[in-house]
Amino acid sequence: MTTVEITYIGGPTAVIELAGLRLLTDPTFDAPGAYPIGSRELTKTAGPARRPADIGPVDAVLLSHDQHPDNLDTSGRAYLATAPLALSTPSAEARLGAPVRALAPWERVELPLPGDGALHVTAVPALHGPVGSEALVGEVTGFVLSGDDLPKVYVSGDNASLDLVREIARREGPFDIAVLFAGAARTPLVPDAPLTLTSAQAAEAARILGARHVVPLHFEHWAHFTEDGSALTKAFAEAGLTERLHLLAPGASVRMSVVDPL
User: In CATH, what number is assigned to the domain containing residue 66?
Assistant: First the structure.
């Protein structure tokens, strides 16, 4: 039996503990307020449940992208600089430098486990909006965590494409755990479509992936999210997937035991 523990910090930020390793998703620790991005701004409505000092050291950061302040903010950049390794997109590596290491889609890196073996981290494609919006929103990545006798975990990043979820499921699935960035984010930059999964799409993604457990992230704490936790609860209930959903309060953790990893 292998146990995965996920602690929700707030927004897209969570600690994933698996096989003796600690991984942090998209570091965001700034206070509420307005944050400029080009000629626009994004409004943060709540701060994190824990500060960087409360989290402590991690083995790696999984950074879906660096170009938006709701996924990497000023305090998150300071934390990132202290991490031994951050895995992200080629454009993030070009902008940020060390400790960021670029992974192209489907490229894999191995993180040594305490004792023996390795955790495989595979970059998987993500689309931060509708097809054709790539030049506006920039490069984004998701991740698959896997290894011998380990649960398989999908971390979506800011992906809005179910077609990509299907491709990931075909190539890497099925999955034990899906960490899905949801919230149906909308901004004037791409006014006609959400930039992240809607609640109904998150439930459909869980079905496509075959995920036994689903932990949503990035569905609250910013004004541009249009669907909150209650929308996720409703969508998973309507899809008959309520038992798979772990909707965490900020600062809360869930421990998921996988008896027979897929």
Answer: 3.60.15.10
- 261 inside domain: no
Chunk the chain into consecutive blocks of 10 residues (it has 262) and report each block's average pLDDT, rounded to whole numbers: 92 97 98 90 95 94 97 96 97 97 98 94 96 90 96 97 98 97 93 93 98 97 96 98 98 86 46
The whole-angstrom distance between residue 190's C-alpha and the CA centroid of its chain comes to 21
Per the domain annotation, does 260 fall within a domain? Answer: no
The whole-number pLDDT of residue 259 equals 60
Beta pairing, strands 213-217 & 177-181: parallel
What's the token pair of residue 173? 């699935």
pLDDT at 190: 86
Domains identified in the chain, total number: 1
Alpha helix (H) ranges present in 97-228? 134-137, 162-172, 199-209
Contact 122, 143 (CB under 8 A): yes
Domain span at 182: 2-249
Q: Smallest Cα–Cα separation from 212: which of 170, 184, 241, 177?
A: 177
User: In this structure, is residue 256 part of a structural domain?
Assistant: no
- What are the start-end ranges of the E strands in 63-140? 86-88, 100-102, 108-112, 118-125
Cα 63–Cα 99–Cα 53 angle in degrees, nearest 5: 70
Distance CA 179, CA 124 (A): 13
Place of tokens 């457990």: 213
Token pair, residue 10, equals: 């707030």
Distance between CA atoms of 227 and 220, rounded to whole angstroms? 8
Residue 164 domain flag: yes
Contact 183, 220 (CB under 8 A): yes
